[in-house]
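Methods — Computational structure assignment.
A single polypeptide chain was analysed. Its primary sequence is given first, followed by the predicted tertiary structure written as structure tokens.
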Amino acid sequence: MTEERDLLVNRRSKMEQWIADSGAYNNQFRRQHLAQALHEEYAAADKMQLAAQQIPTAVSGRVMLRRVMGKASFITIADVSGQIQCYLSKNDLGEDAYEAFTSLWEMGDIVGVCGVLMRTNKGELSVQANSIHLLNKTMRPLPEKFHGVTDQEIRYRQRYLDLITNDRSRDVFRIRSRVVQRLRDFFNGRDYLEVETPMMHSIPGGATARPFVTHHNALDMDLYLRVAPELYLKRLVVGGFERVYEINRNFRNEGLSTRHNPEFTMLEFYQAYADYKDLMGMTDELLNMLSVDISGDARIEYQGLQLDLSQPPERMTMAESICRFTDLNEANIADEVALRDKLKDLNCSVEAHWGVGRLHSEIFEAVVEGSLLQPTYITEYPAEISPLARRSDHDNQVTDRFELFIGGREYANGFSELNDPVDQAQRFSAQAALKSSGDDEAMHFDQDYVEALEYGLPPTAGEGLGIDRLVMLLTDSPSIRDVLLFPQMRPLSAG
């Protein structure tokens, strides 16, 4: 701690000197070129050509390397595009400016350099400085240059340090931005309308999840942060917008893990006169497009798992998947006693009021989900756990619903929408009963939404796709925190 304190005192002293000498915090410097643009434009220019042309430039960024060698020195500065070397000499700058550089400039400082392009004897494109400008000083040293920020906790809590020192992190978030843009391109090109729906709801709906509660002072009423935009988006389809999508922030009052963050980003889209099978085909097309766009190939690797997103995923019903991955079979898959016994064998809690559908769901989550490594669609989810999905024509105990799993993780949830207002009211009532009995994740009864359905929702299919998990997949990132700029973290005092 003493060493760190001494270092901070020394840097504070240099900052005070800088302020006294120059007035500090210069906002007049203007950059002319980015590092990467210079490297690309002058890649073929040799030392003699650059010396003859005397190409002027002004670059700026953070000092990432500093080598002082008597009357001449080199620094490497990093900007948003990359890095470029600068050559500083006493002869070019003058004694005072060069002395200020050697005495005040440190790793991490933000600087501007004006000069002409040159190529060193080793062939590296550089800026030969004729004037230098200290734009801001760092009061804290950067992490060790060869390893950057290696502590995961620090990477997540101080993302700015991670971005300064870690090329991989910067690349991940550039890819995330590209993914979002390509999603917009995909849906805009198919005549979908991008919309924005409320983030504060008087009734939380659209998903079975525990909401965050806030209070509106002027109205003196509790409001809920959005758990999903679904019910508002379907209201828009009722209103005549037949194809809509929203890239939205959702909030669910749940635990933290490598897969979950209480604040996350979803793509939700709805299309009239379509069904869930249509959306599975669209999802296949979307994943193939994104993987080729980001990695150049529909065959990608995720955490050692080889995936081929050019091929349609396997499809199986939830009941079929349970029979495949457990000792249950067609003879007892609908036997409530056998299902309860299986959950007890798995050391899972079982509630007395659960029906066959909920029991199927619990067995699926306990055994099957983690086994679905290759892209797989699970269909025919029980109506008991799908309060917004249309019932299947061949079996009213299941719904026209799918979820997409890759690497044992859910990525998408879609279904043909329930557009029967009577059935919807009954399902809301069942959810309300569950909530009254203590289920914090059960839905409220949304009378306004039922009334909207009474005006007529066309046959419609909708889907939610997790953008955070999608970026994890496309960047081979093991944790959701790796793809969130500022993930939610436990207080340090909590350990």
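Note: The mean pLDDT is 93.
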